Structures are given as C-alpha cells and as structure tokens.
Amino acid sequence: MAVRSSISRFPVNLEEQESSGLPWGITVTPFSATDERGAPPIRGGADGGGRILPRCEHCWAYFSTYCDLENWAWTCALCGNYNGLTSDSIKRFSSDCPELSSSFIDLELEPTGDDESGDIELKARPVYVAVVDLCSSEEFIELIKSALLAALEALVPGSLFGLVTFSHKIGLYDVQGPIPVVKNVFMLPDLESTLPMPLQDVMPLLSFLAPVETCKDRIIAALETLRPATSWERTAPSAGEETDGVYFGGRGFGSTITALIDYLGSEYGTTFALADAVQAGVCVDLFAVTDEYTDLASLKFLSIDSGGSLFYYSNTDDSTLPQDMYRMLSRPYAFGCILRLRTSSDYKPGNAYGHFFPDPQYENVQHIICCDSFATYAYDFAFDNKEGFSRHSDHPIVQMAFQYSVIEPVDESPANGPNSSTSFKFCVKRRLRIRTLQFAVARNIHEIYDSVDTEAILSILVHKVILASLEEGVREGRNLLTDWLVILTAQYETQKPSVSDNNGSLMSQIDVSFSQCPELQPLPRLIFALLRNSLLRLHEEEPSSLHKAIYPVLMSYSSPDKQAYPRHSLSRAALITSGSPIFLLDAFTDIIVYYSSTADPSLPFPPPHDCLLRATINKLKQDRCITPKLTFIQGGKDDVTLFENYLIEEQEVDGSIPAVNVMGFVSFLQDISREVLEYLK
Questions:
Q1: What Gene Ontology cellular component terms go with this record (predicted)?
Q2: pLDDT band at 270 (very low <50, low <70, confident <90, very high)
Q3: Which of 247, 325, 647, 653 has the highest CB neighbour count under 10 A?
Q4: Which domains are assigned to the chain?
C-alpha cells in the first residue's frame, strides 16, 4: 500500500492552508505490494489475526505502533480514547505479532485448515471469459487470435476459460469434447435486451467453462475457427433485415453482456456458482480496436462499474493488445475490496476520487469491485475548525484500512505419487491490510513548500479537473487549472518582499518559475502540458505514471552504454545545448530512442541488446501496467515527427506551433505572470 501526501508537513490551520495555494490530500495505491519507499508489509500467519486485532471503541480505528500500550489497555492514536484489551488480544500481544513491530501490516481474516478438519475456506477456480465481436475485419480477428493465445499462456493451471462471440447472434463454445462445438442463439430486437432463451438452456455452464490445463489445444482450435460475420455468413440476412417473418438484429453488444452476466451470476447477482462458490464479482475489461468513432464515453462505465479497465487502440497494425492482455492476466488482483480512511482529530477527509463506490451507511468507506497493484485513489483533507492543529498537540495521524479477497492456489501433492494426475485447487482468502502514518505540522509556510510531492499534487489536480469537466464542461476544467496556478503563484509571491524596478516604481517581480523553491519548479511545466495534453483519460494511474503521460521524461546518452543527463526539458533548444548524440524519451505509452542527425556514424543503430540503454528500456517496460510502443528514429534518415511532437515547450497551449521568436512555454509563463499581477491588485 503506497500512500503519498501532497505535502508531508501539514498546515497548522485553515488560514495557512489557504495561504499556501496547494491542494492538501493523499493518493493511495492499496494493492501495491510495497509502500511508497519500496518496503513490503509485515504479514500475519494463518491464525486469523485480522479478526482479533484491537479496535478503538470510539472511532473504530485499528491498533497500531503509534498507540500507547499498557498491560491491560491501550490508548487510540487517532482519537485518544482509552480502550481495554480482550483476553485474546493480551495473549496475542504476549508474543511477536505484526501490529507490534510495524505500522504497515497485512493479516488474514479467516483461518485455514484441511477439508476434513473444519476448513471454512471456499474452494474456487479463477474464471476467464473472452467475448469477441465478429462484426469486424479480418485484421481485427487475427489480432484477437494472437491476443487470446497470449492470454492462454498467462493463465495459471486450474483456471476455467470460456469463449463467446457476438454479432446478430451469440455463440457459446464447448471445447471439452473431441472437437470444438459452437451453439448459437439469435438476438431478436422485438425482445429488447433479452434473448429467446437463457444461455444456461443453450449450454450448461459446466460445458461452457473448460479447464485450461486439459483443454488448451481445443481452445486454440476453437480460436482458429473465428471469422468475421460478413465473410462466413454470406447467406445469412443482413443486419436489420426481415426474412420469413423473422427480424434479425445488428451488433448485439449490450444484449450479449447482459445475458452473459446473468449466465455467470448466481441468484444474488454478485457471486459465481460452480461446484463451489467464488467470492468475486464479474469484472469486465474492454479492448476497443478501431479507427472510427466509438462512444467510449458510454462504454467506459461497463468497465469502471465492474472494476475493470478500458483499453483503446487506434489501429491493428501498431496495437500492443497481445502484450497488454498477457501483462493484465499475469498480474495479481484483489476482489470485493473495502477501503476505509480515518484521521486523527482536528481534520477530516473531504472529497474522494477514483473508481469506487461510497458506502450507503458509513462515511469515508469505499467499495472497490476489483483492483490491481496500479489502481490509485485520491482524497482531500479539510479542517474541522478554523483553529486547526494545536502547536503542542500530537502529530496528525492517517490510517488506511484495506479489506480484500484474493484467489490463491492450494499446494497439494498428488496422492499416488508424481506420476498420478495433478488436481488443481484454489481457495479464496480474505485479508486486511492496514497502513498507519504520522505527519508533522509545518512551523511556517516555507516548510509546507519544501515538503511538496509534485506527482501527488498532479494526481489530485487531475481528478479535480476531470470532475469539473464532467460536471461543468471542459472549458471550466481548463479554467480551474489555470486559476489554480495563478493563485498558487500569487500566494507564493506574497511570501516575498516587493522590489523596485529600474523606473523606481514598486511592483512585485513575479517568480512564476519558483526559482527559490526546487520542489515547486516542476508545476508550471506540468500544468502547461496538462492544458494541451489529451492524456487526462489516464487519471487513474499511479502518480509517477501520470507524470510521464502528461510531461514525458527526456534523457540523453553519450553512447549506448553511458548516460549523459538524466533529464532535459522538452524543447529543441535542450537537444542542441546538451551536445548528446542519443536521446531516450519515455511518454508512458511511447518509448522513443532518437539518434540526432549529428550523431557519430560509428555509434551502433539501433542500440545493441546488451547495452545500458536497452537495459533501461527493458526496466521501463517491465514496470508498466501496459506495453509501451518502442520506436527507434535516426535523425537525417527517418521521419522525426513522432519525436518532435513531444517537444511541447515550443508549442502553444492549444498544441499549435507559435510564431517566430515566441516560445510556447515561455509565453504561457508570461500570461500567468500577467494574471498573477491582476490577481494581486
């Protein structure tokens, strides 16, 4: 669980918080394997420690290392309440346990055991269903085949797999017999979103979901039979035509998803029932590959509401769909999650941002259907009163509690020796992850500025801007962003003395680049890039990924094995003045290696696979949630447009190239300076 605060030293009161001009809040990546410094949690054993972990009788916070502990009682670090200890807790605390040694712990909520000795764990098997749109081109179908073959390689043995196709009919594949068999059910528009019969009547669920380890060859054979509906059903009536009194529908995406969720769901609609139950909802990931208009704004809610993701590819030629699908299915996931934020007295959580649902009964409790190690959420803080924190009070405390389920394989050796058939079993484990953090209160506003986390600020700002854009329009979202930078700069200026110019008139020399505060210096460039960048759709990424998506990282190399500079501004001037022959640009979705036109011809192009530059590229790709497109460009020989488009500091906010001698980012700073002067007047 990585927690990053926009400012690591909190303002003492409301007046100081408003005077700073900075957003006050945190970003949380709950299922991250480590904290923001790379340290993993202390994990509890199979004793169900999360069930008996002491909780405050007043605020319901969990015991942590910041609490005062006595022989029979403890004092809550958040609210100061004095609580007694149960006999179970006293016994637990008499020996080493995670909550006594670390403020970052991960505990089981239920004990494990053998089936014959009272095992209460639910046996489960991971279930994956591929739903393929056949109203498409041959190129799309070939790409889908490659992607699903990659997906099969990523699935762990014991997983269940189902294949569904849709056009004007739904096809269910049975791959458990000697040859794959598809059974179709036509969608009739007069029945609106329903089918003539439930999918369970078309094919029993046990026939539809096939074990990957025993049916992999037949699943591959079934994939090879996929063809676009327009080529292998030429004799069928066209979509929307009536034949012999039967009206056939068009692309039945909505009907397919509705019927499929009913097919996979139990009577409660949230659990899947096979021989045993899987404690997980149906999570939908959407992969859209099209160069035509597609209403992604509407489609996104299917993935958002189910805890999935939406991937968009503009064409089949450059699509990284197979790599992305393999990465996605190789990652661990948490299901049925509950995220709870608690704070100590004098301040409280404000707004919450992310793809989660607020609990209808309890404040500051969010429900997350499914999340991976990259999913990040954000919170604002607000004071309970104008007085804020007492100068002599304890340090402010933040506690994040994350309750989640994971599906894990059960390690079982074959009963009859190594030559007997292997039986794959899985179990659902419910866990509780708790992170408690203590912060300091700033003694003055300069300590606040010195404690800034630029990437956390950016993440919170993007959430705010997107929310404003959805509620009041894109123009209002852009205005909010510009106004924020103006106010921040103005508030920063008020902390400096006024100076006199050459004419003797008094005016404030606007330091719009924050030259005296290194922690604030990246913000103007980030806001400039955000105002002209379409990557606001990546607002759920972790802060460091979001930074690269909005303002790419440009580094230079004197040779493939020697880095020259770790970071440059995104301008042609930076390329020229650096004198370096090789540049590596990381734009999150794109990684570009650029050899300048003046590079020594003896430098190997493209760089060899065993060099430092290649190792850096491989590390960037490995740490990413999607597969970035890698491009090599040789200046003077190749088209350099792709690379130069990322040199945004010489473009205006709207993306256009400015007039001669007028630099885009420079003119943006000048505009901000003028607005700051007007604001201060």
A1: COPII vesicle coat; endoplasmic reticulum exit site
A2: very low
A3: 325
A4: 1-33+332-410+426-442 (2.60.40.1670), 42-101 (2.30.30.380), 127-235+249-330 (3.40.50.410), 459-498+505-645 (3.40.20.10)
> In one letter, which amino acid is 673?
S
Question: Please, are residues 605 and 611 in contact by the beta-carbon 8 Å criterion?
Answer: no
pLDDT band at 110 (very low <50, low <70, confident <90, very high): low
pLDDT of residue 602: 92
Residue 285: pLDDT band with limits 50, 70, 90:
confident
Write down the pLDDT at residue 197: 80
Quick check: 226 and 147 in contact, CB under 8 A?
no
Exposure string over 320-351, b if 16+ CB within 10 A, otherwise e: bbbbbbbbbbeeebbbbbbbbbbbbbbbbbee
Q: Quick check: 656 pLDDT over 80?
A: no
Distance between CA atoms of residues 97 and 246, nearest Å: 68
Instruction: Identify whether the C-beta of residue 492 lies closer than 8 Å to the C-beta of residue 514.
Output: yes
Residue 473: count of CB within 10 angstroms of its CB: 11
Model pTM score: 0.77
Rounded CA gap, 18 and 10, in Å? 12
Within 13 Å of residue 483, how many CA atoms lie on the same side as its CB?
8
The strand ranges marked E within 159-253 are 160-166, 169-174, 181-186, 210-211, 242-243, 246-247
Q: Where are the beta strands (DSSP E) in 440-535?
A: 440-441, 499-500, 506-507
Task: Please choose, from the candidates 346, 341, 358, the residue with its C-alpha nearest in 3D space to the C-alpha of residue 398.
Answer: 341
Q: How many Cβ atoms from other residues are within 10 Å of residue 78's Cβ?
A: 24
Contacts 24+ apart (CB under 8 A), 229-234: 229/134, 229/135, 229/167, 229/168, 230/135, 231/138, 233/167
Residue 559: other Cβ atoms inside 10 A: 19
Report d(CA 128, CA 282) in Å as an integer: 10
